[in-house]
Amino acid sequence: MDVKALLRAQHIETPSWAFGNSGTRFKVFAQRGVPRDPYEKLADAAQVHRFTGVAPTVALHIPWDRVDDYADLARHARDVGVGIGAINSNVFQDDDYMLGSVTHPDAGVRRKAIGHLLECVDIMDATGSGTLKLWFSDGINYPGQDDIRARQDRLADALSEVYARLGPSQRFLLEYKLFEPAFYVTDVPDWGTAYAHCLRLGPQAQVVVDTGHHAPGTNIEFIVAFLLREGKLGGFDFNSRFYADDDLMVGAADPFQLFRIMYEVIRGGGYGPDVAFMLDQCHNIEPKIPGQIRSVMNVQEATAKALLVDRAALGDAQSSGDVLGANAVLMDAYNTDVRPLLGELREEMSLAPDPMKAYAASGYAEKIVAERVGGAQAGWGA
Ligand code: RM4
Ligand code: MN
Helix or strand or coil: residue 173? Predict the structure, then answer.
C-alpha cells in the first residue's frame, strides 16, 4: 500500500461557518479580520487548502451563505482555488420552527421547511454540488407534547419529497444527533433512525456521522464499520467533544478515537470519494484559519497512522486468537510519530512541511485584519 499516495489524495472539506464568529449561548467573542460575506469566507478557506494541499472544497450553509448569484459564488471559489462542497440546509433558526420543521404539527410550517430543502437542491444545481446535508433540530421537550410516531411519518414524507427532487449525481446525507435543542425526544436521535429512513429511500440517501452527536462512551467506530458494510456511510462531520456537542477541533479531545474511526473507514473500503470527510467545527476562542489548518492536520495524522496498520500481521493475530498480538499491531501503528512522514509528503507536494508555521509567516492574518474594516462580520446564526 502506497501510504503517501493515499495521503496525497485525501480530501478534507472545510465548513464556511468555521470562519465566522461563533460562541456559546453565553457569549460570542468577535475576532478581528473575520469575513463579512460568503466570498470572504471562501477566500479564508482557500488559505487552509493553500497550506495543507488536502482541503480543496468548502461546505456552504444556507441561509448563512445566501447570495444573489450562486454560479458567481462558485466561480469566485474556483478563482481563489477551491470548490463548493456540501450544501448544508438550515431549518432550525426561523421562529416558525419552534415546534419543529419537517415534523411540525402544522402542515404550513412543514411546507415551508420542505421548500427550503428543495431550494438547497436548486443551489446544488447552480454550484455543481453533489451533496445535501440534512440536519433537523426537530423534537419535543415534554412527554405528551406531540405524537412521536406521527412525527416519524411527517419526517418520512418530507424526506421522500426531497429525495425525489435529487438529480442522478446528487445525494443527501441525513445527520443524527442525540439531543439539543430538543431535550426529551429528538426526531432523528441516532444512526439507527437515520439508517432506517435512508434504507427505505434508496442509494442516494446515506447517513452522516457527526462525531460530536453521540452519548458519552458510544463506540463510533462500530457505527462506521456497520454503515460501511451496508453501503450507507455517506460521510463525517468531524469535531471533538468532551461533554456534549462541543464542536472543538477534531482530534483534540480523543485522537485515539479518531484513529480507530479512520482504521474502520480504511478497513471497510470507505477511503475514497464516496465517504466525505467534512469538518463541522466552531473556533470560539482560537483563531479560525489556523484552527482549521490544525484540524486538517489532525485528520491527516490519524489517517496516516491508520494506513500504517500492518493488516496482514493483524489478520494473522486475529485468526490465531492472539489477543495481545492483535492489539499490539494496532497500537504500534497508533504510536508511530507520523509527523516526519507528513512533512516529507508536503515537501513532495511543494508545500511547507509545517503548515501552521507557513500560514503564520504568510502575513494573511495581518492582511485581513487591515483590510476588513467596516461591514457586519459573519457569525453563527447570521
Ligand atoms: C448542527 C449540525 C450541522 C451543522 C450545524 C452548524 O449541529 O451539526 O451539521 O450544519 O450544526
Ligand atoms: Mn454536523
Answer: strand
Ligand 1 center to residue 337 CA distance, Å?
A: 32
Residue of the nearest CA to atom 9 in ligand 1? 135
Distance CA 177, CA 218 (A): 12
Backbone angles phi, psi at 36, to 5 degrees: -100, -15
Residue 148 CB neighbours (<10 A): 15
* pTM attached to this predicted model: 0.98
Residues whose beta carbon lies within 6 Å of some atom of ligand 1: 17, 61, 88, 133, 135, 175, 210, 237, 280
- Which atom of ligand 1 has the smallest separation from the CA of 175? 9
Low-confidence ranges of the chain (pLDDT < 70): 381-382
Distances in whole angstroms, Cα of residue 69 to Cα of each of 58, 86, 214, 349: 17, 17, 37, 34
Mean pLDDT of the chain: 98
| Ligand 1 geometric centre to CA of 280 (Å) | 7
Residue 92's nearest CA partner among 83, 104, 82, 84 is 104
Number of the ligand 1 atom closest to the C-alpha atom of 213: 8
| Whole-number Å distance between alpha carbons of 309 and 313 | 9
| Ligand 2 centroid from CA 210, angstroms | 5
